[in-house]
Amino acid sequence: MKSNTSLVGIVCKDGVVMGADRRITAGSIIMGKNFQKVKPINNYLAISYTGSVADALLSEKLIAAELKLKELKTRTRPTIKEAANLIGMMLYRNIRTPSMVPSIVGILVGGVNEDGSTELYTVEPAGGVYKVEDYDANFSSGMPYILGLLERQWKKDISVAQGVELAVEALKASTQRDSASGNGIDVFAITKDGVKHVVSQEILPNYT
């Protein structure tokens, strides 16, 4: 199964907003309608992903374990940049390991550092890591629709509250055109107070 999804990450003046739809697909078949694709890894970092569901779920577990191990070994909490680069290295290694079915997952990484600053990174399926200065949708199937809307509506001084509203609009716009996205949306706000699930909405079909 592949999660050809709609992801969105938005940089705000007072935090980061991350959101995604809930649909998972296998080709043209909808396999699931209530799959949460934004996952808090701990109290300071969240990830969202697109790609193979099995690879994404395994990556989620490995990321949590690797970050905890790093924290125990160094006796310090990793910065969001360090976490993103660790995830990038994991994806780089996975996709270059000989396999009949290569692991392909794109991940958005958002979090808050110990000094209260927030950061958003996009990690491409091949392992490249890039800091996001405005907004991104990684390589999700809804990316063209999301980026098109954000190109017109995102502002540099946007607040987290405004970013949440914009993320909801971007995801809803994508679900109207991208057949691999839909059924519901989840939006998380990441601020100096931590990671919070601020929007949980089901998108119901209307029959007349």
Q: Mind explaining what this structure looks like?
A:
- The chain is of the alpha+beta class.
- The chain has a single domain (2-202), classed as 4-Layer Sandwich (Glutamine Phosphoribosylpyrophosphate, subunit 1, domain 1), CATH 3.60.20.
- Helix content is 32%, strand content 33%.
- It has four helices and 13 strands.
- Strands 1, 6, 7, 8, 9 and 10 form a six-stranded antiparallel β-sheet that branches. A five-stranded antiparallel β-sheet has the order 11-2-3-12-13, covered by helices on one side.
- Helix 1 (53-74) crosses helix 2 and helix 3 packs across helix 4.
- It is globular and about 55 Å long.
- The mean pLDDT is 89.
Give the helix/strand layout:
Elements: E1 2-3, E2 7-12, E3 15-21, E4 24-26, E5 29-32, E6 38-40, E7 45-52, H1 53-74, H2 80-95, E8 105-112, E9 118-123, E10 129-131, E11 135-136, H3 143-153, H4 160-177, E12 184-191, E13 194-202
Antiparallel strand pairs: 1-7, 2-3, 2-11, 3-12, 4-5, 6-7, 7-8, 8-9, 9-10, 12-13
Helix pairs in contact: 1-2, 3-4
Radius of gyration: 16 Å
The shape, in one word, is globular
Helix-and-strand structural type: alpha+beta
What is the strand content?
Answer: 25-35%
Mean pLDDT: 89
The total strand number stands at: 13
| Tally of domains | 1
